[in-house]
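Contributing new records

If you add data, match the layout below exactly. Sequence lines come first and carry their own label; structure lines follow with theirs. Keep one chain per record. Anything else will be rejected by the validation script.
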Amino acid sequence: MKKEKQAAAPFSGYQKFAIFILAITMFTVVLDFMVMSPLGDILMKSLNLKPAHFGLAVSAYAFSAGISGLLTAGFADRYDRKKLLLFFYTGFIAGTLLCGFANTYPLLVGARIITGLFGGVIGSISMAIVADLFDLQHRGRVMGFMQMGFGASQVLGIPIGLYLANLWGWHAPFLWVAAMAIIIALVIAVRLKPLTKHLQVKQEKSALRHLLSTLAKKDYRIGFTATALMSIGGFMMMPFGSAFAINNLHVTQHQLPLLFMVAGISTLVVMPMIGKLSDKADKFKIFTFASVWMALMVIIYTNLSVTPLPIVIGLNVLMMAGIMSRMIPSSALITAIPVLQDRGAFMSINSSLQQIAGGIAAAFAGMIVVQKDKFSPLEHYNTLGYIIVGISAISVFLLYRVSVLIKNRPKETKPQKEQQVVMEEEAFLIE
């Protein structure tokens, strides 16, 4: 009864602010990355790009984000997380501005690399902050709100971005994201409190040894592998989503914002529900059911030909519900793996491997998908769907191991006692 009462406890005012500012920060980072997909058809036509070239532009962000995360992992637990967040968010803003001023394919790829070097680390820092401020019993709800940034980017961000792109060209959405991010950075600087409790846990290892020791732990490697595999599916399908909808399904450029908007609204409805359910039910069971549902919808969607818009929208909503319903329980489980003193390094490595795996997937997808000319249907898009289903089955097995690991973990280990003390102190400070 006590645990149930704790899980249902409302968040404090500052906790609500922390969730909001992290969610809106992730909104801009996700939007910067996600907008590449709806702009895909415009970019491929305006810059005369083949699918392989566009896949490289997407993977450039992912590879640089992965490398950046690995380089910073050893230092992630040695600084105030607020300062780290502001440093990398400022770099992200600069990279996004460069995307807005790029006028050739090489300059665009270079700008995406810079954006990835900074933006790719922000998610791991945000997850470490969430793990610092909220215990596992509350983390499902928090993850639900955090993932709403993904849905919001589709409901508001992508349609507005496409509208701006149709008015002023594909540069406009990047300039708009940078303008929003500058305002958010100022709010973080003024309102977010320093996060330094992890600094009280003495670190006797060098940054390099801390990185290597984190990588060496078997339990951590299970979580790393599970996260990397789960990211592959999204990175395979996402870059060519708009090109597939326009050239294969015959969705028009003016109907595309509606397609993304409806899918985004559905995720805004689903995310909080799945977040609350993840705090009440078994997280692995929710993940497994969502994985099976996603696999079914991916196979149906990737095998479509010319289809009426209402059916395309309906299938897209059902597919996105499955994809997003996997993310919340899996994120909540994986954040429970590391102990306090390894949390920043773990999140950085986890994010890095996720991005690197996604970069490989995007580049690989660009080699599989073929388009004979600018207006021809994409070929072999359904092959990506079958690959995604196979990888999803493996990820279910790996997350099962993560679930068992957490359930079998001793309750009275020293690191956990330290973690509980820190959480109690943090709650006292917040109140």
